[in-house]
């Protein structure tokens, strides 16, 4: 039986979610909600469901299994906490857009509430719900990468001083950490997905002179060095249209181990696997000249539209809830989203202290469900 879903927040992202729910056999979109009545009415007409102008009314009048929160707010996250918490308090499972909140205290409260209420809390960390990411995990699971050595992630909008336009949008103007809070959720979650928990972070932020001259306070250039619990090291470089990335395009992640390396380009489009010399099927070290390597293996997904990540991720959440997986096994869970925000807060702390090495706040302990553990 399909899960009955109510959607809160009907701007662009909300409509992308609505389209995914409408096309998914595991979902029955039964209501939409937005405090701007015109948006709610337009979505209701489009999807053939009732419109609500408050979540309280929707929860009172609809028999819901899941509330999907796609509101925005300051720093793209200040309107996430209230509806997500209200839905959890009403006993509903919740899928919330990223960042889980723009406030670390609120994020911790949401994760704690979901745990105590025994409810699913997922976050739309959609960047690793892709065919290339699946291929990368397959390589890792099959021993093709080996012991992790490093992870490099570059992510940012392509641009430069010729395309810069000072945005005075209320959600971003006057918020120096807008880009950090709204954007770094994704690369941190991707790096953790492949390499595990982060134990140490060192960060340097800045903005180019043309932003400074315009009075733009956004810390749009982020250079972050990290150490993973496994002992591997990582580097994250993010910028918001201040430069044009070369190799790998606007989004690339490279993960290297003792047996091989993979690189994903443009998130959903392409994966290249570079086997280490001597690996099965690869050239032997003695056959390689200085600086050369075995021939790489290229996997193209055939997908170029980044929005294709949304239905994949939403389906995964619906699938996990439908199957009743253990809460700590939920893919892209609230705890996973909290981890990304803890790393974001650690990076801000490091920057504010002049590049001091910071250990992120510990994540909630995973207890496991005695009903599901053998």
Shape assignment: globular
Hey, roughly how much beta strand do the residues contain?
15-25%
Q: Structural class of the secondary structure composition? A: alpha/beta
The average pLDDT is: 95
Uncertain residue ranges:
none
What letter string, H or E per element, gives the SSE order? EHEHEHEHEHEHEHHEHEEEEEEHH
The major β-sheet equals: 8 strands, mixed
CATH class categorisation of the largest domain:
Alpha Beta
Number of strands: 14
**Corresponding CATH architecture of the largest domain:** 2-Layer Sandwich
Q: Helix segment count?
A: 11
- The rounded distance between the terminal residues' Cα atoms is 27 Å
If you consult CATH, what is the topology of the largest domain? Answer: Dihydrodipicolinate Reductase, domain 2
Q: What number of structural domains do the residues give? A: 2
Overview features:
374 residues, alpha/beta, Rossmann fold, Dihydrodipicolinate Reductase, domain 2, 2 domains, 8-stranded mixed beta sheet, 6-stranded parallel beta sheet, globular
